[in-house]
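Encode chain A's predicted structure.
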Amino acid sequence: MQKNRVYNIKEAIDRIQNYCSIQDRCQWEVERKLNEWGLIQNTIEMILIDLILEKYIDEQRFAESFCRGKFKIKKWGKVKIKNELKVRMISEICINKGMRQISDKEYTETLQQLFEKKSEKLKDKNQFIRKGKIARHLQQKGFESNLIWKLLNKDK
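Encoded structure for chain A:
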């Protein structure tokens, strides 16, 4: 038996509205939360429809705030952000609208800053090893390989 089980639909609706009010949520996250509470599928679908109609859930708004937040706060690249949105079952249209929240100028500046920060931390003298470590780090952050290697090769 789950500890967060909800037996009353009114209580579930109040709790999930509060959950959605705290920060933007996508349908996938809300559905997972309702499943954790042990609600049956018909009830979950009914609650989701109400949440969407009342604008507690808005996939486009979620995608836009997710892209802005992960880029500005966590310094994630577009590849990682896009993959995370796909995991959350966000449509390609909403993903593309969300990606427009990231300006190209800021994106290249952030990539440059992360490159310099990682470069300063490395103690390796061998340029081949240094470039490999920097490239792996920036790829893990979700930046595109072609941008990374353009930056690495410019640094000669």
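The mean pLDDT is 92.
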